[in-house]
Amino acid sequence: MTGPLIATNALSKGIHREWALPNPTLGELWKSIVMDEVQKTQLLSQAVVNFTVRPRVNRSILPLHGVILLVGAPGTGKTSLARGLAHRVAESFSSCRMRLLEVEPHSLASSSLGKTQRAVSDLFAQSISEAASAGPLIVLLDEVETLAVDRSKLSLDANPIDVHRATDAVLVQLDLLAEKYPNLLFIATSNFPEAIDSAFVSRCDLVMEIPLPNREACRQILEACLHGLANTFPDIRKLTNAPRFGDCVQACEGLDGRAIRKVVANALAATRETATDPNRVTIDHLLKAITDAKANRPRQGKRA
Ligand SMILES: Nc1ncnc2c1ncn2[C@@H]1O[C@H](COP(=O)(O)OP(=O)(O)OP(=O)(O)O)[C@@H](O)[C@H]1O
Ligand SMILES: [Mg+2]
Protein backbone atom coordinates (compact mmCIF):
# COMPACT_ATOMS: atom_id res chain seq x y z
CA MET A 1 0.00 0.00 0.00
CA THR A 2 1.24 3.47 -0.85
CA GLY A 3 0.43 6.16 1.68
CA PRO A 4 0.16 9.94 1.47
CA LEU A 5 3.17 11.87 0.23
CA ILE A 6 3.64 14.37 3.00
CA ALA A 7 3.00 14.16 6.74
CA THR A 8 0.15 16.36 7.95
CA ASN A 9 2.37 18.55 10.15
CA ALA A 10 4.49 19.56 7.12
CA LEU A 11 1.49 20.87 5.18
CA SER A 12 -0.02 24.37 4.96
CA LYS A 13 -2.97 25.26 7.12
CA GLY A 14 -6.19 23.76 5.80
CA ILE A 15 -4.39 21.06 3.77
CA HIS A 16 -4.87 17.78 5.47
CA ARG A 17 -3.00 15.37 3.16
CA GLU A 18 -1.13 15.24 -0.11
CA TRP A 19 -0.90 12.22 -2.43
CA ALA A 20 1.20 11.55 -5.51
CA LEU A 21 -1.03 10.20 -8.30
CA PRO A 22 -1.76 7.66 -9.57
CA ASN A 23 -1.79 5.73 -6.32
CA PRO A 24 -2.90 2.07 -6.05
CA THR A 25 -4.31 2.60 -2.55
CA LEU A 26 -6.74 5.14 -3.99
CA GLY A 27 -7.42 2.85 -6.94
CA GLU A 28 -8.62 0.19 -4.49
CA LEU A 29 -11.07 2.72 -3.04
CA TRP A 30 -12.56 3.36 -6.49
CA LYS A 31 -13.04 -0.36 -7.02
CA SER A 32 -14.48 -0.89 -3.54
CA ILE A 33 -17.41 1.47 -4.08
CA VAL A 34 -20.31 -0.45 -5.60
CA MET A 35 -22.30 1.89 -7.78
CA ASP A 36 -24.05 1.98 -11.11
CA GLU A 37 -21.25 1.70 -13.70
CA VAL A 38 -22.94 4.30 -15.92
CA GLN A 39 -22.75 6.81 -13.08
CA LYS A 40 -19.11 5.94 -12.35
CA THR A 41 -18.20 6.36 -16.00
CA GLN A 42 -19.99 9.71 -16.18
CA LEU A 43 -18.06 10.90 -13.14
CA LEU A 44 -14.72 9.82 -14.57
CA SER A 45 -15.49 11.27 -18.00
CA GLN A 46 -16.46 14.65 -16.55
CA ALA A 47 -13.20 14.74 -14.60
CA VAL A 48 -11.19 13.82 -17.70
CA VAL A 49 -12.95 16.54 -19.73
CA ASN A 50 -11.66 19.03 -17.22
CA PHE A 51 -8.10 18.26 -18.32
CA THR A 52 -8.71 17.64 -22.04
CA VAL A 53 -11.13 20.48 -22.84
CA ARG A 54 -10.73 23.21 -20.24
CA PRO A 55 -7.12 24.11 -21.10
CA ARG A 56 -7.99 24.40 -24.81
CA VAL A 57 -11.37 26.15 -24.92
CA ASN A 58 -12.01 29.75 -24.03
CA ARG A 59 -14.16 30.30 -20.94
CA SER A 60 -16.46 32.59 -22.92
CA ILE A 61 -17.47 29.49 -24.89
CA LEU A 62 -17.54 26.93 -22.08
CA PRO A 63 -17.55 28.50 -18.62
CA LEU A 64 -16.07 25.52 -16.80
CA HIS A 65 -14.84 26.05 -13.23
CA GLY A 66 -13.24 22.67 -12.70
CA VAL A 67 -15.54 21.70 -9.83
CA ILE A 68 -17.41 18.40 -9.38
CA LEU A 69 -19.79 18.11 -6.44
CA LEU A 70 -20.84 14.75 -4.97
CA VAL A 71 -23.87 14.89 -2.70
CA GLY A 72 -25.60 12.15 -0.77
CA ALA A 73 -26.45 10.68 2.61
CA PRO A 74 -23.63 9.93 5.08
CA GLY A 75 -21.77 6.70 4.37
CA THR A 76 -22.69 6.41 0.70
CA GLY A 77 -19.05 6.44 -0.40
CA LYS A 78 -18.58 10.07 -1.52
CA THR A 79 -15.14 10.62 -0.01
CA SER A 80 -13.90 7.20 -1.14
CA LEU A 81 -15.18 7.88 -4.66
CA ALA A 82 -13.57 11.32 -4.75
CA ARG A 83 -10.18 9.89 -3.74
CA GLY A 84 -10.56 6.99 -6.14
CA LEU A 85 -11.60 9.35 -8.92
CA ALA A 86 -8.38 11.33 -8.46
CA HIS A 87 -6.43 8.11 -9.04
CA ARG A 88 -8.46 7.12 -12.11
CA VAL A 89 -8.08 10.56 -13.70
CA ALA A 90 -4.32 10.47 -13.16
CA GLU A 91 -4.23 7.00 -14.72
CA SER A 92 -5.86 8.47 -17.83
CA PHE A 93 -3.00 10.97 -18.13
CA SER A 94 -0.12 8.69 -17.33
CA SER A 95 2.45 10.96 -18.96
CA CYS A 96 2.07 13.79 -16.43
CA ARG A 97 2.54 13.76 -12.70
CA MET A 98 -0.62 14.75 -10.86
CA ARG A 99 -1.16 15.35 -7.19
CA LEU A 100 -4.13 15.22 -4.86
CA LEU A 101 -4.50 17.69 -2.00
CA GLU A 102 -7.12 17.06 0.66
CA VAL A 103 -8.57 20.14 2.30
CA GLU A 104 -9.85 20.00 5.86
CA PRO A 105 -12.43 22.82 6.00
CA HIS A 106 -13.02 22.62 9.75
CA SER A 107 -9.44 23.68 10.48
CA LEU A 108 -10.12 27.00 8.72
CA ALA A 109 -13.06 28.05 10.87
CA SER A 110 -12.22 30.53 13.58
CA SER A 111 -14.34 32.25 16.20
CA SER A 112 -12.52 35.57 15.83
CA LEU A 113 -13.91 37.96 13.29
CA GLY A 114 -12.19 38.06 9.92
CA LYS A 115 -9.94 35.06 10.58
CA THR A 116 -12.01 32.47 8.74
CA GLN A 117 -12.17 34.65 5.66
CA ARG A 118 -8.39 35.20 5.78
CA ALA A 119 -7.69 31.50 6.28
CA VAL A 120 -9.93 30.62 3.32
CA SER A 121 -8.31 33.26 1.11
CA ASP A 122 -4.81 32.09 2.11
CA LEU A 123 -5.69 28.48 1.39
CA PHE A 124 -6.93 29.19 -2.12
CA ALA A 125 -4.74 32.14 -3.13
CA GLN A 126 -1.52 30.73 -1.68
CA SER A 127 -1.46 27.01 -0.91
CA ILE A 128 -3.71 25.76 -3.73
CA SER A 129 -2.47 28.36 -6.21
CA GLU A 130 1.19 27.43 -5.56
CA ALA A 131 0.46 23.73 -5.89
CA ALA A 132 -1.53 24.29 -9.12
CA SER A 133 1.29 26.30 -10.67
CA ALA A 134 3.61 23.31 -10.12
CA GLY A 135 1.52 20.95 -12.30
CA PRO A 136 -1.87 19.26 -12.75
CA LEU A 137 -3.69 19.16 -9.46
CA ILE A 138 -6.83 17.65 -7.94
CA VAL A 139 -8.17 19.12 -4.70
CA LEU A 140 -10.65 17.30 -2.48
CA LEU A 141 -12.99 19.69 -0.65
CA ASP A 142 -14.67 17.32 1.77
CA GLU A 143 -17.79 18.55 3.56
CA VAL A 144 -17.81 21.67 1.43
CA GLU A 145 -20.95 23.02 3.12
CA THR A 146 -18.68 24.23 5.94
CA LEU A 147 -16.67 26.35 3.44
CA ALA A 148 -19.37 27.60 1.07
CA VAL A 149 -22.15 28.21 3.59
CA ASP A 150 -25.51 29.19 2.11
CA ARG A 151 -25.50 32.96 2.73
CA SER A 152 -29.26 33.22 2.38
CA LYS A 153 -29.75 31.03 5.46
CA LEU A 154 -27.33 32.77 7.83
CA SER A 155 -28.91 33.86 11.09
CA LEU A 156 -27.55 36.65 13.24
CA ASP A 157 -25.84 34.44 15.81
CA ALA A 158 -22.27 33.08 15.56
CA ASN A 159 -20.39 35.58 13.42
CA PRO A 160 -22.62 35.64 10.35
CA ILE A 161 -20.58 38.43 8.76
CA ASP A 162 -17.40 36.39 8.91
CA VAL A 163 -19.09 33.29 7.52
CA HIS A 164 -20.67 35.42 4.80
CA ARG A 165 -17.27 36.82 3.85
CA ALA A 166 -15.66 33.39 3.94
CA THR A 167 -18.21 32.15 1.39
CA ASP A 168 -17.59 35.27 -0.71
CA ALA A 169 -13.86 34.53 -0.55
CA VAL A 170 -14.38 30.93 -1.74
CA LEU A 171 -16.40 32.16 -4.73
CA VAL A 172 -13.93 34.89 -5.67
CA GLN A 173 -11.02 32.48 -5.39
CA LEU A 174 -12.78 29.78 -7.40
CA ASP A 175 -13.30 32.29 -10.23
CA LEU A 176 -9.67 33.39 -10.13
CA LEU A 177 -8.30 29.84 -9.99
CA ALA A 178 -10.62 28.69 -12.78
CA GLU A 179 -9.23 31.39 -15.02
CA LYS A 180 -5.59 30.90 -14.12
CA TYR A 181 -5.24 27.13 -13.78
CA PRO A 182 -7.11 24.97 -16.30
CA ASN A 183 -5.28 21.90 -15.01
CA LEU A 184 -6.88 22.15 -11.60
CA LEU A 185 -9.91 20.09 -10.58
CA PHE A 186 -11.86 20.41 -7.35
CA ILE A 187 -13.91 17.43 -6.17
CA ALA A 188 -16.27 18.54 -3.42
CA THR A 189 -18.50 16.37 -1.24
CA SER A 190 -21.47 17.13 1.00
CA ASN A 191 -24.18 15.46 3.05
CA PHE A 192 -26.06 18.74 3.24
CA PRO A 193 -26.45 20.13 -0.27
CA GLU A 194 -29.23 22.39 1.00
CA ALA A 195 -26.66 24.13 3.24
CA ILE A 196 -24.31 24.98 0.34
CA ASP A 197 -24.42 28.44 -1.17
CA SER A 198 -26.29 28.42 -4.48
CA ALA A 199 -23.55 30.47 -6.18
CA PHE A 200 -21.08 27.67 -5.33
CA VAL A 201 -23.44 25.02 -6.75
CA SER A 202 -23.87 27.17 -9.86
CA ARG A 203 -20.09 27.05 -10.39
CA CYS A 204 -20.02 23.23 -10.32
CA ASP A 205 -19.51 21.58 -13.72
CA LEU A 206 -21.31 18.47 -12.47
CA VAL A 207 -23.44 17.84 -9.39
CA MET A 208 -23.93 14.14 -8.86
CA GLU A 209 -26.16 12.54 -6.27
CA ILE A 210 -24.66 9.38 -4.80
CA PRO A 211 -27.62 7.17 -3.89
CA LEU A 212 -28.11 4.58 -1.18
CA PRO A 213 -27.21 1.16 -2.57
CA ASN A 214 -30.06 -0.70 -4.29
CA ARG A 215 -30.66 -4.39 -3.59
CA GLU A 216 -28.06 -5.62 -6.07
CA ALA A 217 -25.51 -3.16 -4.71
CA CYS A 218 -26.33 -4.29 -1.14
CA ARG A 219 -25.60 -7.85 -2.23
CA GLN A 220 -22.29 -6.89 -3.77
CA ILE A 221 -21.18 -4.83 -0.77
CA LEU A 222 -22.12 -7.60 1.66
CA GLU A 223 -20.35 -10.20 -0.49
CA ALA A 224 -17.24 -8.06 -0.91
CA CYS A 225 -17.07 -7.52 2.82
CA LEU A 226 -17.56 -11.21 3.71
CA HIS A 227 -15.15 -12.41 1.02
CA GLY A 228 -12.58 -9.90 2.20
CA LEU A 229 -12.92 -11.24 5.74
CA ALA A 230 -12.72 -14.81 4.44
CA ASN A 231 -9.13 -14.13 3.38
CA THR A 232 -8.36 -14.12 7.09
CA PHE A 233 -11.22 -16.26 8.47
CA PRO A 234 -11.96 -18.81 5.69
CA ASP A 235 -15.21 -20.26 7.13
CA ILE A 236 -16.91 -16.89 6.67
CA ARG A 237 -17.02 -17.47 2.92
CA LYS A 238 -19.80 -20.07 3.32
CA LEU A 239 -22.22 -17.38 4.51
CA THR A 240 -22.59 -15.99 1.00
CA ASN A 241 -23.76 -19.43 -0.18
CA ALA A 242 -26.21 -19.94 2.68
CA PRO A 243 -29.88 -20.22 1.63
CA ARG A 244 -30.75 -17.23 3.83
CA PHE A 245 -28.07 -14.95 2.42
CA GLY A 246 -30.79 -13.47 0.19
CA ASP A 247 -32.76 -12.52 3.33
CA CYS A 248 -29.70 -10.69 4.64
CA VAL A 249 -29.35 -8.80 1.37
CA GLN A 250 -33.01 -7.86 1.43
CA ALA A 251 -32.76 -6.73 5.04
CA CYS A 252 -29.82 -4.46 4.13
CA GLU A 253 -31.95 -2.36 1.80
CA GLY A 254 -32.22 1.16 3.18
CA LEU A 255 -28.78 1.01 4.82
CA ASP A 256 -25.83 2.96 3.39
CA GLY A 257 -22.61 1.23 2.35
CA ARG A 258 -20.80 2.13 5.56
CA ALA A 259 -23.65 0.72 7.67
CA ILE A 260 -23.65 -2.52 5.65
CA ARG A 261 -19.97 -3.05 6.35
CA LYS A 262 -20.51 -2.22 10.01
CA VAL A 263 -23.30 -4.77 10.46
CA VAL A 264 -20.82 -7.43 9.43
CA ALA A 265 -18.54 -6.27 12.25
CA ASN A 266 -21.54 -6.37 14.60
CA ALA A 267 -22.27 -9.95 13.53
CA LEU A 268 -18.70 -10.93 14.41
CA ALA A 269 -19.31 -9.48 17.85
CA ALA A 270 -22.59 -11.43 18.32
CA THR A 271 -21.20 -13.73 21.04
CA ARG A 272 -17.97 -14.24 22.96
CA GLU A 273 -17.31 -17.29 20.75
CA THR A 274 -17.69 -15.45 17.44
CA ALA A 275 -15.66 -12.55 18.76
CA THR A 276 -12.86 -14.91 19.74
CA ASP A 277 -13.09 -16.97 16.56
CA PRO A 278 -14.91 -15.11 13.72
CA ASN A 279 -14.97 -18.36 11.70
CA ARG A 280 -17.94 -19.30 13.92
CA VAL A 281 -20.23 -16.51 12.80
CA THR A 282 -23.52 -17.78 11.29
CA ILE A 283 -26.11 -16.42 8.89
CA ASP A 284 -28.46 -15.93 11.89
CA HIS A 285 -25.89 -13.69 13.57
CA LEU A 286 -25.65 -11.66 10.38
CA LEU A 287 -29.41 -11.36 9.92
CA LYS A 288 -29.88 -10.31 13.54
CA ALA A 289 -27.12 -7.70 13.27
CA ILE A 290 -28.79 -6.21 10.19
CA THR A 291 -32.25 -6.21 11.77
CA ASP A 292 -30.89 -4.60 14.95
CA ALA A 293 -28.98 -1.95 13.00
CA LYS A 294 -32.11 -0.97 11.11
CA ALA A 295 -34.27 -0.93 14.24
CA ASN A 296 -31.75 1.19 16.14
CA ARG A 297 -31.07 3.72 13.38
CA PRO A 298 -31.71 7.25 14.62
CA ARG A 299 -34.21 9.07 12.46
CA GLN A 300 -32.36 11.28 9.99
CA GLY A 301 -32.84 14.94 10.85
CA LYS A 302 -31.78 17.81 8.70
CA ARG A 303 -29.10 20.18 9.94
CA ALA A 304 -30.15 23.80 9.80
N1 LIG B 1 -21.60 2.03 -2.46
C1 LIG B 1 -20.68 1.51 -1.65
N2 LIG B 1 -20.04 0.37 -1.97
C2 LIG B 1 -19.12 -0.17 -1.15
N3 LIG B 1 -18.72 0.37 0.01
C3 LIG B 1 -19.30 1.52 0.38
C4 LIG B 1 -20.30 2.14 -0.42
N4 LIG B 1 -20.70 3.28 0.20
C5 LIG B 1 -19.96 3.36 1.31
N5 LIG B 1 -19.12 2.32 1.43
C6 LIG B 1 -18.15 2.10 2.50
O1 LIG B 1 -18.50 2.93 3.58
C7 LIG B 1 -17.38 3.55 4.17
C8 LIG B 1 -17.57 5.04 4.21
O2 LIG B 1 -17.41 5.61 2.93
P1 LIG B 1 -17.12 7.17 2.73
O3 LIG B 1 -16.38 7.72 3.89
O4 LIG B 1 -16.51 7.32 1.39
O5 LIG B 1 -18.61 7.74 2.72
P2 LIG B 1 -19.09 9.26 2.68
O6 LIG B 1 -20.24 9.30 1.74
O7 LIG B 1 -17.94 10.17 2.39
O8 LIG B 1 -19.60 9.48 4.15
P3 LIG B 1 -19.79 10.88 4.93
O9 LIG B 1 -20.87 11.63 4.20
O10 LIG B 1 -20.22 10.45 6.29
O11 LIG B 1 -18.47 11.60 4.92
C9 LIG B 1 -16.18 3.09 3.37
O12 LIG B 1 -15.58 2.03 4.05
C10 LIG B 1 -16.77 2.61 2.06
O13 LIG B 1 -16.02 1.61 1.49
MG1 LIG C 1 -17.10 11.76 3.46
UniProtKB/TrEMBL annotation:
Key words, A-Z: ATP-binding, Nucleotide-binding
Domain AAA+ ATPase residue range list: 64-212
Domain of life: Bacteria
Keyword Ion transport part of the UniProt annotation: no
MF (Gene Ontology): ATP binding
Keyword ATP-binding recorded: yes
UniProt protein name: ATP-binding protein
